[in-house]
Write a structure and sequence with these properties.
The structure is a homotrimer. Chain A is mainly alpha-helical. Chain A is globular, with a radius of gyration of 20 Å. Chains in contact: A-B, A-C, B-C. At the A-B interface, helix 1, helix 2, helix 3, helix 4 and helix 8 of A face helix 2, helix 8, helix 9 and helix 12 of B.
Chain lengths: ~375, ~375, ~375
């Protein structure tokens, strides 16, 4: 049954992508435009490094679930990118968007999906990650269409979210949280998530790869003349959150937590997303410091409290790395972006939260129909040897 | 004696590269051309990441041979690139090819050599990897000259192989298989190759680095305007093989194999090589699915059968990751590339197979003259501490 | 007290960077210039990969100090980059340098700081790495100003040092050595530094990431037309040092040392720095071979001798990877660069050595005032779990 679903899934993708072939007809025209596109391509490759090596290894912190986490990463990316392309091909006017822009938008969807999957990591069977991807992408695209492209006419005005603090990070985190709410079992709640020296070092590798390429994520679709400034803002925000994480971790826990260092250091990148091309460098640094402090507070204080209260597990703490800092970034835009449409920005944030929550709850219920891992956070059940 | 050979090897390289200095005289001319070259340079760096981090760590799956695998990778790259440059300097008209194109061609040779070395990994002494490189590069360049540049007038017509499915992947794999055939010992055949959690995670790291930068490998020498489309094709092919690998692995083995996930996921990149700039995206996705399925079939079914029958060991299974998918890609071009010269394409494939097999067998015999590791797949023999 | 210092440090940074916001006003003008800047941006990202993943993981060779080494790397980078920006904003005429050039210069400072920190790795408390960064950057910038920008009128003529053999590598190594001299304790001298299979493989990962992106480090600020040639020189130098390291390691130790392979392989990149855009490829290869041999000689022979004689510990052996090869590179320029101002070059090297040594000694004394780790080379003291 599981396999049948899988094969159907492949075949569907396969047939639909065929329809998508029209995009091949596009041609980049003049050389200067072509060079600009190749530069976008470079950033697209950087983002791919974030998706696979970055998100993948960040999740390897679960000691006995490393092979599964990496395999799940592979599958989530490989399902979501063709699916998003499909949507672009079916629902967009041909040539309305450049093929390289489509690729980058598809990568954004994959990033949001990986964030979402982090919340339930270790508790889905491998095939269910694929299903999660199939469920997630349409909801993600629907929200993106409403919030950024004026879909349904719900939001009248521009929502400021260049690097996706709202539609990528907050959306993915809230969706994931709600999937976790729908389907966390008592056994999963009771099972501790183990780490060791080696899983921590792998996790820090993932973290660093994300840090390094984050400027390319935020500047992916920015005009060439704005790329350097955007990059500097993102780097200063990341420096700010890294420094803040260290001090906050020591202050709140007494000692440094490797998990804080691997995660909250990146909160500056999440929060500067919305305004990465608009903020002044000093402001970016402040946004980063705030986000790092907030995120560490989330991991050190809120997480254990919320886990106990709700008896629900957010495996990777995506609420604290992507959720809260993402919302912080979306709201910070109100103070940073001059001439911002405040109503549009707030509606955009609200709509994103509602769609993410509702679709996450529904998706969680659906996923739960397809059975569960017997033993959470363990490779053995599904891997040979 | 071993050391003497090494020093001679260095000195030879050294003297010959001096002759190669003429290439420094080249100048990139106009700014637009210079910018285009810098973009090629970026892809050349991406390929270098594949060669060292990608191929290197993919081979770390052999648990107790990690330091050796990485050292061998370093040496194979460091010998083959200057050697190929040398050949370019001695046998090509000056300025006939841009210096950055030469670098990329040299990296292609290094990639093919690393594939070849994968077949006998763990069974050569470190100095023999260097010797393998010295033997391999001239044969590789000879085949490349015949198949792609009309050498000897053997092939009258264009062979379609932009990303090297035939001349890089299939050539390297067949050469390596034949080296293995020439020199596998009974002891090596009997020794199991051990993995563990950590070696698997390192291997998946290598795999992901290859996946991420594969578009730059295929698009390395493609014109700027064609880069985005080529990249999308390669990414869709990789998505296809990744999804197919998961389902095929489950189907054929009952459980997922981390080795399948680390290797067969990449088969889409191998197979789309020949037609990466020509295929439609939907076709690329199909090619990827087919290659992933074929490669997993190779690892799960053919490998153990062939190993038993021939009593020969292909350490990394390069026949199944690079050999069969490479041939698949070369043949797929017959259906994908419009106006293809069928005779030329088939002759190109055949010539590549013959040259690779013959030169591999000869090279294996020569390598065997220089002694062997006493204990296969172990670092200790050659590393201190 | 330690925390107080930290918070003051953040607040100072924070206020000062605000002043730095003027740089946001810059605008890249025409498209061709913008495209050139985006290409520099790409190299800046490559350098960031070297700083975090490269230097970070290279230092993970200390088995039980991996989480600390990576956290320290994060903090050193996050402190030095905003600090250097600050200096640029306060002491440079606005718009005199492009924002992307500033970023790259800041990354150079961070690289030099990481080299410096390698000498005392495992013996500072985490907060002291931050303090080390705060002390280091002004001295580094002061030396850079004197040697490369004619500060104080001390050097009349151009010092050849495109890729920073002198001002980045030798400066950082000598500074670090002198910090180590000021503050190595008897206990630290007596404590062995342990490695294992896994720490070695992580260290080789860092090494390979440095190797791969080294051409972007050297070519970061080079004109587009010179990038390909520079890259080829750097790659040939690295190939040369890699081959030489293998033979020298075997020759001098009887067996291969994984530490030699992880470190001395990079010496070619260090040494070609000064003349990376001027050397002929054959010369670059020779420089690389010499540097690899010299560096391996340092690790295999000088290190144990010097450690015993001085009873001081250089944890990562930065003198042998960055110090000696850096000086070699600076001196090699006398023979390689035509029309070089010999007096200026020699004065530049001398001034760098003097400033680095003096400021390193002073900084070491200051750092020692802030207490010390009780147990060197161990994560446990400062990390939870």
């Amino acid at each position: 049954m599981k396999c049948l679903f899988g094969y159907l899934c492949i075949i569907t993708l396969f047939i639909l992508v065929i329809y998508g072939t029209v995009l091949a007809a596009e041609n980049s025209g003049t050389t200067l435009a072509a060079l600009t596109d190749v530069q976008k391509y470079n950033r697209a490759i950087h983002i791919m490094a974030m998706l696979l090596v970055g998100f993948g290894f960040l999740m390897v912190f679960v000691k006995k679930y490393g092979r599964s986490a990496l395999t799940a990463t592979y599958l989530l990316v490989s399902v979501s990118i063709p699916l998003y392309f499909l949507k672009e091909s079916l629902f967009s006017t041909v040539n309305s968007v450049d093929v390289i822009d489509k690729l980058i938008l598809a990568e954004f969807a994959a990033a949001s999906l990986l964030i979402c999957a982090g919340a339930v990591l270790g508790r889905l069977k491998m095939g269910q990650y694929i299903l999660l991807g199939v469920l997630f992408v349409p909801f993600y695209a629907f929200n993106e269409w409403i919030v950024l492209n004026g879909g349904l006419g719900l939001i009248s005005g521009k929502v400021i979210d260049t690097g996706g603090s709202i539609v990528i990070h907050a959306f993915g985190a809230i969706f994931g949280m709600c999937v976790a709410v729908s389907m966390t079992t008592a056994k999963e709640y009771a099972t501790p998530i183990e780490c060791d020296d080696t899983s921590d070092r792998f996790s820090l590798l993932g973290s660093m790869v994300l840090w390094v390429f984050w400027p390319s994520f935020c500047a992916a679709l920015v005009a060439p003349a704005d790329v350097p400034r955007t990059a500097v803002n993102v780097i200063l925000a990341l420096c700010g959150s890294t420094i803040a994480t260290y001090f906050a971790s020591i202050k709140m826990r007494g000692k440094i937590s490797a998990a804080d260092i691997a995660n909250a250091t990146l909160a500056g990148g999440v929060a500067i997303g919305s305004t990465c091309d608009l903020a002044l460098p000093g402001t970016a640094f402040i946004v980063g410091i705030s986000a790092g402090g907030l995120s560490t507070f989330g991991f050190a204080i809120i997480q254990s409290w919320l886990t106990n209260v709700t008896r629900r597990v957010d495996t990777c703490g995506v609420l604290y790395l992507h959720g809260l800092p993402g919302l912080l970034g979306g709201i910070a835009a109100l103070f940073i972006a001059s001439g911002i449409n405040i109503a549009a920005q707030l509606t955009g944030i609200l709509v994103t939260m509602v769609i993410a929550a509702a679709s996450g709850l529904v998706s969680g219920k659906m996923l739960a129909q397809f059975g569960r891992k017997l033993e959470p956070y363990l490779d053995e059940e599904e891997f040979c040897e």
